[in-house]
Specification:
By secondary structure, the protein is an alpha+beta fold. The protein contains 4 helices and 5 strands; from the N terminus they run H-H-H-E-E-E-E-E-H.
Length: 129
């Protein structure tokens, strides 16, 4: 990976501190206080370098641009708030999914994404859905 800069350190710290996957604009917002002058192009370049170095993983949510989180986490799933669009980690897994697999098929992996309102958005009132 390229040289260690204040901006790169701020981006890595923002991802580690977040406790949830962040999109590039969220990374910029979280890292900017520690790295004045940080721009979105630097965030994208740094995310690309961190991906290439294996330090972060992309999180793909249907219909959304990738978000990123540090590597090395245990298996987990996600909750996406339909109002604020934040994605949160859900600890753990629902368990054995083998009974859902059609006869003769082999389950190799799975992803679970729940959708609804986060606690902060729920306080603002019911969803418009």
């Amino acid at each position: 990976m390229k040289r260690d800069t204040q901006q790169r350190r701020a981006i890595v710290a923002a991802l580690e501190r977040a406790g949830r996957p962040l999109g590039p604009r969220e990374v910029l917002q979280a890292a900017a206080p520690a790295a004045p002058g940080l721009g979105i192009a630097t965030v994208y370049r740094t995310l690309k370098a961190l991906l290439h170095a294996g330090r972060i993983n992309p999180v793909h949510i249907r219909g959304q641009s990738p978000r990123y989180e540090p590597t090395g986490k245990r298996h987990h799933h996600y909750f996406r708030c339909r109002r604020c669009d934040h994605v949160f980690e859900i600890a753990g897994c629902p368990g054995n999914l083998e009974p859902l697999v059609p006869r003769g098929f082999v389950l190799e992996d799975h992803e679970v994404v729940l959708y609804g309102l986060c606690a902060a958005c729920r306080k603002k009132g019911p969803s418009t859905r």
